[in-house]
Structures are given as structure tokens and as C-alpha cells.
Amino acid sequence: MTAALHRRQFLNATASAFAALAASGCTTGARMGGAPAGPAGYGPLVADPAGLLDLPQGFSYRIISRLGDMMDDGLTVPDKADGMGCLDLGGGKIALVRNHELVPTDGAGGTIPSGFDRIDGKMVMPGGTTTIVLDAATLTVEKQYRSLAGTIRNCAGGTTPWGSWLTCEEAVVSPSARNAEAHGWVFEVPANAGGLVDAVPLKAMGRFNHEAAAVDPRTGIVYLTEDRGDSLLYRFLPTVAGKLALGGKLQALAVDGGPADTRNWDSAAMKAGTMHAARWIDLDDVEAPQDDLRTRGAAAGAAIFARGEGIHMGDGELYFCCTNGGAAKLGQIFRLRPGKAGGPDGISLFYESTSPDQFNYGDNLTVAGNGHLVVCEDQYTDVVDNHLRGITPDGIAYPLARLRVQTEPAGACFSPDGKVLFLNSYRPATTVAITGPWLA
């Protein structure tokens, strides 16, 4: 989710817990299947009198959090709301853990007491996460607080089956006179943190321009995207499933019998619908002080992708966006199927946009309970017309919502029961809950 320069500058899981939570929460989503919503999705969009979000007939939204709202810790909601995850807290409560893609020059919403890094050794860097605790039935906000701070450009991330959010820094920044720490890491935030967590970088998961993450609940393997024009797709094999801080092995995907360059910029090398066997290349020196992890991986045979963005785990398969992939450079969506019983993984090009009316620069994505993809657009033009796009299992795209303000929709994620879609409007930060016939 790299910004256009002209527009916007704990864990004790078991195998049984993986299996149970995989079936119950919005951490895993739904299989890409099921009845389509109709030939034109849910029908034409109806203009919002409030000028925020156009939706189809039968859908509505309510604002649950916005920039400047006072939180329970005395801070206010900061700006640039980006990736977000929804997790079940039990007892009829759910939590939204929300990224804020802030850089050191952005406002923090008050004086943050602690965090990973400081500016000039003084103020805690503003990047990080906030957490919103909601009553699952009424969607009433019961608590809001800062849950991570001291980081830079927390872009996307992913939920885990053991009840946490992996928040990713999309910033490879080296230590300098102004900052003591290197940046470009993944951090873990428990959904029930209750306040600021100790910001510990998961360095074994690599230092690069992180975008999003998704966990396979069967294995605990974490899949990671990278927002660079010559990015790789990574996976992290934890030493102990559910305990990422104990380390593990980082690998990059290679396509067997297919192109090393999947971007299709110069030729249609990656054919839509063709499943290729995938293999994984071990990576070394993953803390990458020279920011060269992707180039070393590509030299070893890893496949190149066009700006990896949102990634989401469905039922035995993952989907991830590549923002400007394809011949038209409007975006691609890939499908990755982890192998079962020791079999090879498979990867295919699921969708490639050929027109802005299909989708234009896909970014965050999730899967609805009826099996449709929900994709957030992030256009890079002076004047934007960003939508949520639905894509059926048959590969038919349709407009699902239209954001009427000059910013991007981000952080789309469903409640555990699949009945509510939570969404961020990036700037000014606004989080909404969208209800409607999602399962129809």
C-alpha cells in the first residue's frame, strides 16, 4: 500500500485450538464457492445522502469510530486507518485491531507513554495500532485504546487463529541520528491486550516492505506479502506453531513450470486459471540490513510479483492482490493452495483486471460468507473514485460500494458470524460497520 507521493506520504496455541478457531472466526473466512449474489452483484449502488459510502439497496452502515474521538486511555483516535482484523473475545464481545499507517511527522493523538522507537530519543513514534472492543450483538463500542506504538507505516497485517493481529511495517528504515531502531518488521498484538503491548519485532519473519499476513490454521504457517514492484511472496514456518517469537524459517515462493515473472507487464506469461506447482526457497540473512531480501530471493529462483498487497486465508486456500499487475497494470489476484498430506503447493492467477470498471488497483481483500472476494481499491490519481469490488467464484467483478470521499477504503474484515463487514476510510480515519444480506 505504498502511498502516491502526491496523495499520502500470550501465545499458547495447540493443534486443537487451530482446528476449532479456523472454523469459528473471521480469521479464516469462507471457501471460494457458493451461490453468486446475482448477475450484477447485489444491485446498483444507492447514493448516500451523507456523502460517505454508497451501498446497494438493503445495506446500511453506521460509524463506530473516527479521527479525534476520545479513547479510554486518554489519547484520541489517530489518522490514516488502514489494515484491520476482527477477532472474537468471547462473552459476546469482539475486537477490531486497527492499523494506523503513520510516519514520524504525523500526529499521534496525544503523548504515548511507550513504544518500539522514539523520534530524536524523545516522543514515541506515532505508528501502530488501536483496538476497539464492541458488543457483538449491538455493535456498541465498549472500549477504545492504543495497543501498539513506536512503529512506522503500519499498513496491513492479518489475524491469527490464536487470537492476535499481526501488524506489518511497510517501511524499511535503518537506524539513524533520529531513530535508534531499524524498521521493517512484523509485530504481534493480542486482541485482548487491554492497553499498550510490549512492541517486540518478530525479526525471524524478515525485514522488508511488509504488507499483509495470513495464517494457515492447519499448520500455523504464516504467508506474507511485500509491497514492492519486484516483490516476493514469503512464508514463515514457525519453530512452534502459534509462538512466532520463538523463531522459525523464512522462505520465498518459486513457480515450477511457470514464469519467474508473474506480473504480465510485457507478455501474458502467467495464464489465468492454470494451476502451477509451487516450491519454496530457503532464505538466509532475513534481517536484511541492505534491504536486499527480495533481490537475493529472486536471484535464487523466487517468483516476482507486482506489489503484493492484501492476503486472506479461505478454506484451504489463500488469495492475495498485486496492485499494478497485469497487462493493463490495474491489478491481479492470485490463488495459493497449500498442499495436503505432503503434496506440493499450487498457485494460479485467479483474476486480472483489464478495465478500471472491473477493479482499479486492488489492495486489502477479504472473503464473504457466500464465497465472494471483497477487494478494496486504492487508486493513485489526483482525483480518486475508489470502490469496494466484489468478485464471484466464477471471476465476475461487480461494484459493492463506493467511497465518496477522496481517500481509500481499507481494512475490510467480517465479524465472526459473517453478518457485518467492518471497513476503514483511510483519511480522515473513519471506521464503519456495514450490515446487509452478506450471506445471500
Descriptive overview:
- This protein is mainly β and 440 residues long.
- The chain has one domain: TolB, C-terminal domain (Neuraminidase), CATH 2.120.10.30.
- It has 2 helices and 28 strands.
- The strands form 6 sheets. Strands 13-14-15-16-17-21-20-19-18 form a 9-stranded antiparallel β-sheet, with no helix packed on it. Strands 1-2-25-24-23-22 form a 6-stranded antiparallel β-sheet, with no helix packed on it. A 4-stranded antiparallel β-sheet has the order 3-28-27-26, with no helix packed on it.
- A hairpin with a 7-residue loop joins strand 14 and strand 15 (234-238).
- Residues 2-38 have low confidence and may be disordered.
Mean pLDDT across residues = 90
Spell the H/E element sequence.
HEEEEEEEEEEEEEEEEEHEEEEEEEEEEE
What is the name of the CATH topology? Neuraminidase
Biggest β-sheet: strands ordered side by side in the sheet: 13-14-15-16-17-21-20-19-18
Q: Uncertain runs with pLDDT below 50, 5 residues or more?
A: 2-38
How far is the first residue's CA from the last residue's CA?
Answer: 31 Å
Number of strands: 28
**How many individual helices?**
2
* CATH level-1 class: Mainly Beta
Summarize the biggest pleated sheet: 9 strands, antiparallel
**Helix fraction by DSSP (H/I, runs of at least 4):** under 10%
Computed Rg: 20 Å
The CATH architecture term is 6 Propeller
Shape by Cα distribution: globular
Keywords: Signal
Signal peptide: 1-22
Protein name: DUF839 domain-containing protein
Pfam family, one: PhoX
